[in-house]
Amino acid sequence: MRACFGLFGDRGPGSTSAVDPSVAGPLKQACEQDADAGVTLAQLIYAMIKGKDAFVGDGQFDDKGLVAYLRSHLEAHEMSAVIAAVTRYNNRATEPALKLCADEPDSARLAVLCGDEILTVDLLRLGTSETVQGVGAAEETQNGGMEASVISDREYVDALRVMDSSGRGETIINALERNILGELSEEEDFLEVGVGTGIVTNAISKNFKRTSIVEINPDLMTHINFLPEMVFHESVINVKLPVGRYDLVLCSDVFYRFSIEEITQAVLRLRAGLKRTGVLAIVMTAPRNTYHELCSFFDINYTNSGHIQKVLNDLGVSYKSISEADRYICERREEFSALCRFFIAMDCDPAQTGSVRRLDGNQFLEDFLHRSKKDKGYEIVVEHDLLWLTGAD
Asked: Which molecular-function annotation in GO is an example for this chain (predicted)?
């Protein structure tokens, strides 16, 4: 990332100084270990945390000193990503971080778009809601389609909060531990395709000596709390992986809006990266239950585990599968509506959602909310299929 290199040298036209090597030593050394692959923001953050003595002599993580130092060397949107990661690492939003993001609209926006719930909630509490809510506000699509396919940043944060409070990721982690991790011949190299919020990646990586990541969106790397062995900032369709290297390749909730041909190409690439005894695990939502009812109305062909099964069957490979379900319960109607709109926006093809007449879409969503009302609140059941196959039949 351009700004990360700028920490250690010339920032290009207009640059006035470079960082004092005696101050940035631990950062520089840690990041340069993987210089050939490019210094990522995740590596920078990891080096910051591990090399915190470079900033504070007594070894304590001094928020004010760190903010002041980085603020002088990073641009606003880059600074916000660093702050988002550090506050997540500390499991709290520090006052200097809040002050910085409240003063700089770009920082507040990026905190929201990165899904940093801790930081965003406190930003809202501090009265910056206009800044936070003003990005990507829901609006009618150009062709008059259903507005449920576009969500505001506040709704995005609400949806993530509900999913986190419901144990999002734990179901997948437990399924992997029960069915796959204990059966692996080796636990040397793990490849995660798609970081998401980092919950699954961070948990599963602890079982392996080395973890590499395929993630096309560099901003999502702020969710990682370790230093990856390799990072591929490419689409899973085009990524060039080392052949026969990985003991486990995990591809969780990645193939939404992929065609059958694209899924096939990706599966072949990922499988080629496995050791002969390695396992490729794919997690996708299943075409069952209330989640399916919601998404299939707006996009009858939304990608689900049925498409993965078709690809594997067409390739003639053997695989196993199990099903798991998450129940998301919201006490407030507004939160549940935000969660439904989140699923529609993330998992359905905009071309299809845009073809749904606004009146029909609004009426369906209203009816769906009414049917989802239970004793404890509003509930939607999201069922996942975990499918796995080895590097060789």
From this structure: S-adenosylmethionine-dependent methyltransferase activity
Q: What is residue 36's three-state secondary structure? A: helix
Decide which of 95, 116, 135 is a domain's last residue: 135
Give me the residues paired with residue 321 across strands: 387
Domain boundary among 114, 135, 156: 135
Range of the domain at 107: 2-135
pTM of the model: 0.64
Do the Cβ atoms of 222 and 85 come closer than 8 Å?
A: yes
Same structural domain, 15 and 97? yes
Place of tokens 């003003």: 134
> Three-state SS for 374?
strand
Give ∠ CA 179-236-251 in degrees, rounded to 5: 15
Measured CA to CA, the distance from residue 213 to residue 28 in angstroms comes to 22
- How sure is the predictor about 123, in pLDDT bands with cuts at 50, 70 and 90? very low
Structural domain count, the chain: 2
| Number of Cα atoms under 13 Å in the Cβ half of residue 22 | 1
Residue 150 lies in a domain: no
Residues 194-247: pLDDT tens digits? 887 788 999 999 999 999 999 887 767 777 888 889 999 888 998 999 999 999
Q: How far apart are the first and last CA of the chain?
A: 40
CATH code, domain with 325: 3.40.50.150
Q: Out of 148-157, 213-222, 338-347, 367-376, which region has the weakest mean confidence (pLDDT)?
A: 148-157
